[in-house]
Amino acid sequence: MYKVYGSVxxxxxxxxxxxxxxxxxxxxxxxxxxxxxARALNPSGKVPILVDGDAVLTDSTAILTYLADKHGxxxxxxxxxxxxRQDALTHTLLDEFDAVLWxxxxxxxxxxxxxxxxxxxxxxxxxxxxxxxRLAERFVGPFLQGEQMTIADIICVHCLNWAFGAKxxxxxxxxxxxxxxxxxxxxxxxxxxxxEG
Length: 197
Known about the structure:
Layout lengths: L1 E5 L5 H11 L3 E5 L5 H6 L7 E4 L2 E4 L1 H12 L9 H30 L9 H19 L12 H15 L7 H11 L2 H11 L1
Parallel strand pairs: 1-2
Antiparallel strand pairs: 1-3, 3-4
């Protein structure tokens, strides 16, 4: 059985959602970043952490890719043009959404106060809005690549939820409708319920 270490409020949400979509059983360990439990499995103290037997895997995207390939779901086959496009989309989301949001978080509360540059917030919100418009132009529907949900959808919706919470502009009607539909998925709701229980 898989074991997932992290908190629902972190990128561990992505891994938990993936496992719910796959219908795989897992043990969830509510573990804060930099905690003793996290450092025991990952010297950097970062979460999420997935334990599969003797293997300890880190980084949410690496974990999602591993699970998708292992179970042959939520991904296109390796070596296909569709997979190359999926990977390109995944990297775009990490670069243009996740990285922007993480930079904002670091300068809001993560870094020591004397190392923060709060003035960067306006620039990051502008960049995020520009990137969101570009993504909307590429959006096919009902999922990012059309008829098949992939790990890119999990990363995208997690980032858009993060953006809502961080008060970043998410104003594109098509992407708002997409996010609402994805949040309505039973697997998503089951993970959300972990933070409420």
